[in-house]
Amino acid sequence: MKKESVIPECSSCPYEWKDRLCRREDGKFPETCPTHNKEALAQKALETLEDSGWLGFARQSSIQEGEGYGNKDHGYDFVQPIKPRIQEIYEFANKMGFRRLGLVFCVGLRREAKIVGELFKAKGFELASVICKVGRIPKEKIGILDKQKIAPGYFESACNPVLQAMVLNEAKTDFNIVLGLCVGHDTLFFEFSEAPCTVLAVKDRLLGHNPLAAVYNLDSYYRAIKKSPE
User: Fold this and answer.
1) Class of domain 85-230 (CATH, top level)
2) Is residue 5 over pLDDT 90?
3) Residues forming beta bridges with residue 7, ordered by sequence position
4) Pairing mode of beta strands 80-81, 126-131
5) pLDDT of residue 228
């Protein structure tokens, strides 16, 4: 029996990936399975892709996914990843016919941004890039108290993802790439960007921009996170 109102919990699915309903027609599923419970919505999603003009984007995304693996002729158990994300980004941009890329980045990743920007330009793209502190807006302008600054007692420019988006909107970029924006700042950028976006890397100040390191060690070195009162 389908349960339309049940909250989906795919992250808690008890079945092996190879046996799940989202993988095979006769697959297994718990009562919280949206593949089972949301068939009408799945059809609506497909129709939305077709009606909105995003079907080609979805098709090229899936083609890019498939091209990211080698040894496919030996069967699923033998496939291996063969491309880093940065390569997939510029290949996908070519597939979509994007010529002018936008790059928004954190000042803390300015060195990486320079390397990335040079690579994209070497691949034949135009590049518009905008740093997080663009505009030099004092943090006080957005309601930040002095004690809430990184360095109390000194001037600090606020991160300005809305302006980053507006600058790229005026530059009429085809595709925007996010490199290390803060939690929340990335959300604001996505909200105000007119061009479609992707993420090259997310920020994790503590873990060298590898947030999954904490996930992999949540039951050992980072166990205190689960006990934190926040």
Assistant:
1) alpha beta
2) no
3) none
4) unpaired
5) 63
